[in-house]
Amino acid sequence: MAIVKSIKQKGVVLITSLLMIIAVTSIAVTLMSSSSIDIKMTSAAQENEVAEYWVRGDSERAINQEMIASANSRFLFLTGQFPADNTTGIDVTVAGSKSTVTLFNNNNGPVLLNCPPRIAVTNGIKCNTLRVESSLAYGKDDKHSVTLISGIAQELGIVGQSQ
């Protein structure tokens, strides 16, 4: 018969396996927390992009509505028809819009301005230079906002007429 020698184990394998489990668990927790941050950042970027598209669309709808109005268009307003305070404009928001669209007068001088050469190559053609601002608050509790500013030069064709 063979003699079996008993050896007492000192727990080296047990301690090593526990250390490996702790290391793997800490790596998994780190990856899970960073993925939740990535999801939050992705969600915020998507909200921003959606807000930008809403603002662009609402701005274009308001401009299109004024173009359809032809003779009644507020693009044809002269300086006296705008509020005296340059910080307030005329609300041109289309029904159903998510953003606020405001029309501002950029003709701050006493006379109408000549049109840029790209619009009217003929001298004497006057333009109404306007600014359309579209703004939208978005995000949790409307913390963030996006604003789109569009410049418009509307040909008036008025020669020598005062405002």
Poorly predicted segments = 159-163
Overall pLDDT score:
83
Helix content: 25-40%
Structural class: alpha+beta
Termini separation comes to 122 Å
How many separate structural domains? Answer: 1
Order of helices and strands: HEEEEE
Report the total helices.
Answer: 1
Report the count of strand segments: 5
Largest sheet: 5 strands, antiparallel
Beta-strand portion reads: 15-25%
Radius of gyration (CA) equals 33 Å
What would you call the shape? rod-shaped
What are the defining features of this structure?
alpha+beta, five-stranded antiparallel β-sheet
Model description:
- The chain has one helix at 12-68; strands spanning 90-91, 100-105, 113-114, 126-138, 144-155.
- By secondary structure, it is an alpha+beta fold.
- The protein has one domain (12-155).
- Strands 1, 2, 3, 4 and 5 form a 5-stranded antiparallel β-sheet that branches.
- The longest helix has 57 residues, at 12-68.
Topology:
Elements: H1 12-68, E1 90-91, E2 100-105, E3 113-114, E4 126-138, E5 144-155
Antiparallel strand pairs: 1-2, 2-4, 3-4, 4-5
